[in-house]
Structure prediction request, 209 residues.
Amino acid sequence: MGSIPERILAEANRKLGAGHAGLHPAEEPVSVGTERDLAALAEIDLAVAVDADALALGENYRTSEEALRVLARLGDALKPGTGRRMMVQTSMPDSALFVALRRGKPIPYLEDLLVERARLGMPPSTEMLALEVRGDEVPNEVADQVKTLENATVLGPADVQRGRRDGAGGQRWLIQGELSKARASLRGMVQGWRDSGLTVRVDADPIDL
Prediction:
């Protein structure tokens, strides 16, 4: 929390028009936060998303729609009525993501994403599981069991770097296909691995797997 520097007021008035921005009589008119602060964010007059490209250019294939979700939530915090604004810092103003955000029409953008996902064999056109097993030493039997999953394309294992907290390394697999049989088998495997002291993480897409 803090007061607004004069240079920011000058830039806001240059963008929005003279007289649109000024100092609020309250001592702390500015809130600075991250995504986790959106849930408790009260209605605001001006929303500013700094470095939105960091949201949009992540490595996960779900990054772009997650960016749209977060930015839309920020825009939804604006008070109703005229004179409210949302400013987004980006080097890609003409990208499909930011055009959809600016127009307030996400459906055509998301429909295009679905077509691209289907072309690449990604969810929701197919099911996908990311399986990560960590421990002081991951037995070879774990990889052998993963290979037995039915009707599944199994990619991996890839080595996982040792964590900062527990110091444990591990292995990671990407599992794709029609996974109803694989899920049934995997439940027993996961429980057995955990009972043996291993740490297991399963990330499913769609999440209702």
